[in-house]
Write a structure and sequence with these properties.
- It is a single chain.
- By secondary structure, the protein is α/β, with parallel strands linked by helices.
- The chain has ten helices and eleven strands.
- The chain has a four-stranded mixed β-sheet with strand order 8-5-9-11. The protein has a three-stranded antiparallel β-sheet with strand order 3-10-4.
- The longest helix is centred in the C-terminal third of the chain and has 35 residues.
- 42% of the residues are buried.
Length: 324
């Protein structure tokens, strides 16, 4: 009787002794569901942190806005309601235009250019976040935004007067510069909007195109990769500084690994989703020389407009990106 009492008590005591004496648990809100590659990358990041710290820091991922809705995540982290979280960087562009640099159409229209732009803008993004008590861990892009139409387009003249789906200020301006008519349509309403004739064209990622089954209402995918907007993972600076030097170093190493892995996952997502569009019956084409030239000019116009808001800080980013 006595032995049976001591055995579980001894086992429990040994288990407790094996745990880190200062183990810490962080809740991490993210906006997207578990099937999204960003979330899958974050789950792996959390596992890497636990393993690298020997369990001294455990991160519990709360996906699909289950802890905080997307618009609330950044402020929740800033206020310490959650020590760590994920958000779309350009959602913060209303606070400072620097956060919107990766969403200027045709400024960085490939993964290679998007990475160069990120390297040029990252120091300033980190500085702006630090002013709010936030530390950047890493950032990963979505697949590039491309044009969906029923008929093939050779130039922006083919879009003149067409109802063009818009979902923010930048896409409204883009539609105007292409001669199209911007029409606000939410993602979930895309199929209905096309089928009822409310819109005739849109620019979005291949991921959104597949989820909306774009082959049911469009035939051509013009692979412009107009911009590659990024999600970033941020941490409350106070909470981060409260960790030991060893744990902080482990978190930063896991973040560096997650960023590299996430860019690879994004590129794989682009390939697989474009293949799915083809399988659905869509024709995938590169933009014509004329269209490319016109879109580049539009990109320059929108870059100039962004610079008018971003000022010298923005100019320093563009100069670093272009090598001037």
């Amino acid at each position: 009787m006595t032995a049976s009492f001591k055995t579980p008590l001894l086992a429990a005591g040994l288990a407790a002794f094996a745990m880190p004496l200062w183990a810490e648990s962080w809740d991490m809100p993210t906006p997207y569901g578990d099937s999204i590659f960003h979330t899958q990358n974050i789950i792996q990041f959390a596992e890497d942190v636990t393993q690298a710290t020997g369990g001294e820091l455990e991160i519990t991922v709360h996906s699909a806005g289950s802890l905080f809705a997307h618009p609330e995540i950044k402020d929740a982290v800033r206020r310490g309601l959650a020590p760590i979280g994920e958000t779309l960087m350009s959602r913060l562009a209303n606070e400072d235009p620097i956060f919107g640099v990766d969403s200027i159409p045709f400024l960085a229209a490939s993964y290679e250019d998007a990475l160069k732009l990120w390297e040029a803008s990252r120091p300033l993004v980190e500085e702006k976040l630090a002013e709010q008590g936030l530390t950047l861990l890493y950032a990963v892009p979505w697949p590039g935004q491309s044009i969906y139409t029923q008929d093939q387009i050779e130039s922006t003249a083919d879009l003149e007067g067409a109802a063009f789906r818009a979902y923010n200020t930048a896409t409204e301006r883009l539609a105007q510069l292409m001669g199209a008519v911007p029409t606000q349509i939410e993602t979930g309403d895309i199929p209905t909007a096309f089928s009822t004739g409310r819109v005739a064209a849109m620019i979005t990622s291949p991921s959104t195109g597949v989820s909306a089954q774009a082959w049911d209402f469009t035939s051509y995918y013009t692979d412009t990769q107009a911009w590659l907007p990024k999600n970033m993972v941020i941490v409350n600076s106070g909470a981060f500084e409260g960790l030991s030097d060893e744990v902080r170093a482990a978190v930063m190493q896991a973040a560096s690994t997650a960023e590299a892995r996430g860019w690879e996952m994004s590129m794989a997502e682009t390939e697989s989703k474009i293949a799915a569009l083809k399988d659905g019956g869509m024709t995938v084409v590169d933009p014509s020389a004329k269209l490319s030239e016109e879109l580049a000019a539009i990109g320059q116009t929108m870059t100039d407009e962004w610079l008018a808001e971003a000022g010298d800080a923005g100019q320093s980013v563009i100069d670093a990106y272009t090598g001037e």
